Each structure stands twice: as C-alpha cells, then as structure tokens.
Amino acid sequence: MSIVVILDLAVGDGLTLDHAHEVADAAAGAGVSAIRVSDGPPGELALLDAGAVASFLAPRHPELNWIVDAPTTHNAPWNLARRVLTLDHATHGRAGLALRAGDGDEATGTLAGDLPKPGLPVDVASASRPHRWREYAQVLTGLWDGGPALEHEGRFYRVTGALDGPPSPQGRPVLVADGRDHVNWTDAAELADVLVVPRIELVDGGNTRLVDAVVRSGRRRDEVALVARAGIVRENGRAVAPELRRWALEHALDGLELATTGGRDELLGVLRSVVPRLEPRRGPTLRSALGLPGHQRV
Question: Which one of 42, 47, 111, 211 counts the least CB within 10 Å of its CB?
Fold first, then answer.
C-alpha cells in the first residue's frame, strides 16, 4: 500500500538553486508525492521566496508536485491567491499552498483597518493567529472557487473581487494547515485539504484527535489527508524507513512529511535510502498524489 511522502526543501539557507535542482531531480526519480518548499519570515531565515523557487524548478521537473509555504504576514490575500493559482495552472494542477499563521502588517492590516472587529482585538499576540488563519483561508478558498466576485469584510481582511481566468486544473489548489501554527484542528479540517502534525511523536494512539476534528468539521475522512512531520537523516534511513511506514499505517495516517536539517548530501541520501522504501503515492495532480478526491467547485 502506497502512502503520501512529502519532502521538505529550504533553498537559500546553505542550499543553492543548483543544489535544489539536483535534489528535485533525485526526488522525481524516487517518486515523492510532493516537494514542500519552505519560506522564512523576513529577518528570521535566509531563505529564498518559496513561490519563486517553485516557479523556477517546476518547468524543469514537470512530473513533480509542489507545495509552497507562505505566511499571512506580508501577503495580501487576493495577491497570494492569484500567485498560487497561476503556479497551479503552469504545473497543470500540481500545486498547493501551506498557509502559515502570522500577524498583521502594513501589507494586510491596512486592508481591514477601518472595519469593526467585534469580540477579538487585532494585535500581534499569538492568540489571534489561529483566527487570522481561518479568515485568510476562507478568503483563499472563496477566491479559488470562482463564481461571482467575492465580497468579504471580516475582523482582519477586506477583499473584493474575483480571480480572472479558468479554474484550477485540479478543481482548486491544495490548501495545507500546519500544526506548528497552533491552528484549531476542527477549523483547519473544515477548510484545508491536508493537516500536518508538527512531530510524529505527537500523533496519539489511533489518531483519534485528528479524525475527530475531520468528523466535527462536517467533511468525510477521505477529503482530508493526515500527515505527520518526521525528522530523518540518511544515516538511519535504511533502518528507519520500514518502521516509519509501519507506524504511519498503524496510526491511520495518510503519510509523512520528511524534514532534515542537512544540506544537499543529506537530502540526496534521504531520497536514495529512505523514500523508495516508503513506497510513495504518485499522481498526475497534487490532489491525486495526496489521495484526495477531485474538488467540486461550489
């Protein structure tokens, strides 16, 4: 039985674009389900913009699926929705977004600066981030679903308009929620296609918490992929791969996200010694590679 295997890739922090091209080539050969390109908050990580990296690599590796990281901070919702949809069209339905929860800033705060904000102050405190994530995700999915122009006035954002052009080749770009942002799992399951547990050790027995969140959201279990993030290095890859696969299946997970702090050699080693033993799921679109049904526009 194949499982979802996502590989983390952070370019610009000791890994050049030439190295990334080499890693992507090896990832295609190993059959990863998707590459997740990390993005760092300004001033915190010396990483290149994830969307730009994916746009650079995707034409050279048309068989790969891509998930780009982007925070709510410094990204106006309409602009980010358009950029991700453009990448999705360029890759023929092989793109998605890992939306990271952030704070307000000059690029987004001014859009909702004159709106009433009942019940929840707009500030930079981490307590507001899950609420900001939910509203931002609602705007994204509303824009991607097309139809009449979106008219959104919320606690954090004001967005008016529609995205021009045809819909996504896969129905809608994939949306990923990351547990490192402390999002509410039920809110995330209602809006996102993939839930990522920050560390594999945090998945409880039988994965009941995540499955319950999907049920409470009103969606079917097969509409949301559940993935755990696993730190891994090539030295223990041969021994760890069968154990990781067995563990994921026993805990009702759909797959794993492989993260390593190493550079080019570490990534290539993981791709050669670990990924093939996990038997990654593949597909002609990102949705199919994640085992998700095609999205029906509302």
Answer: 42
Other Cβ atoms less than 10 A from the Cβ of 110: the count is 12
Amino acid identity for residue 65 in this structure:
N
Tokens of 42: 């300004």
Measure Cα distances from 182 to 18, 132, 157, 195 in Å: 34, 12, 20, 12
Q: Using alpha carbons only, give the angle 130, 131, 135 rounded to the nearest 5 degrees.
A: 115
- With the CA atoms of 82, 86, 92 and 97 taken in that order, what torsion angle do they form, in degrees rounded to the nearest 10? -50
CATH architecture of 4-289: Alpha-Beta Barrel (3.20)
Spatial CA neighbour of 69 closest among 104, 93, 34, 43: 34
> Domain limits of the chain?
4-289
Relative to beta strand 95-100, strand 66-71 is: parallel
Q: What angle do CA 157, 122, 43 make, to 5 degrees?
A: 85
Q: What is the pLDDT of residues 10-39, one digit of tens each?
A: 888 778 899 999 999 999 999 999 999 987
pLDDT digits (tens, 9 = 90+) for 237-271: 556 888 888 888 888 899 999 988 778 898 999 99
pTM of the predicted model as reported, rounded to 2 decimal places: 0.90
